[in-house]
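During the practical work, I selected for study one protein's amino acid sequence and its backbone structure tokens, as given directly below:
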Amino acid sequence: MFDKDLAIRTNERRPIGCPGFKYHGRLRGYAPVCTTLENPIVTMSFPFLPAVRLAAVAFASAAALSAFAADPAKIENLRVTNACKYCDLTDAALAGADLRGADFQNANLSGANLSKADLSLRPMEKRTLSTNFESANLKKANLAEAKLIGAIFQGTFLRDANLQGADLSKAAFPGANLKGANLKGAKVDGTSFEGAKFCNTTMHDGSVNDAGC
């Protein structure tokens, strides 16, 4: 919600200067403040800033939040189709989800929470599907204690990702970027790291791999 220095008048008529945006009120003595979010967050008090600068700060905060919030429609589509190729799931909340055999090729999952999710093999009638993260962006994603048996991480960007305690048995990481990632306590039975890039990477046994620095 807005800072106490912003006077919110919920019944005030939308001004001309807010076309296409959510009108949230007027700064005391200044111009109206408009954003694209229902509940924009302004964490600092700006009672003496010019109206244009204040509106810019509010809009920038709202735009940043909007940019990093996963689209609920895309998450629902993922649950229905088990695929999200080339889609944006930044900061998606998918902890504990059953996504066995899902296709995340070229998807943006940076900052996503996939802790304790089941991303292992999905047995089908005629074949078994591996969860596919080929060329996906998993920067700073949380995959702690996730089941990733047989998952494909070909060319995946896993910089600073959390893979602590994850089951990576029979998973493959050809060409994956694991710089800064944490794999401490992960299961790596039959896991292939051939061609993967390491730098300040905490391996499953707690050692630090700087081979690619």
User: Anything to note?
Assistant: The CA atoms of residues 148 and 168 lie 5 Å apart. The first strand starts at residue 6 and ends at 7. Residues 1-68 have pLDDT under 50 and may be disordered.
